[in-house]
Amino acid sequence: MNTIISTLIGAAILLAGAAITAYAIPWLKERRLLDAVKTLVEAAEKLAENQPLGKKAWVIAQLEQLGVTVTPFVDAAIESAVMQLDIAIGQAG
Question: Is residue 93 scored above 60 in pLDDT?
Answer without folding.
Answer: no
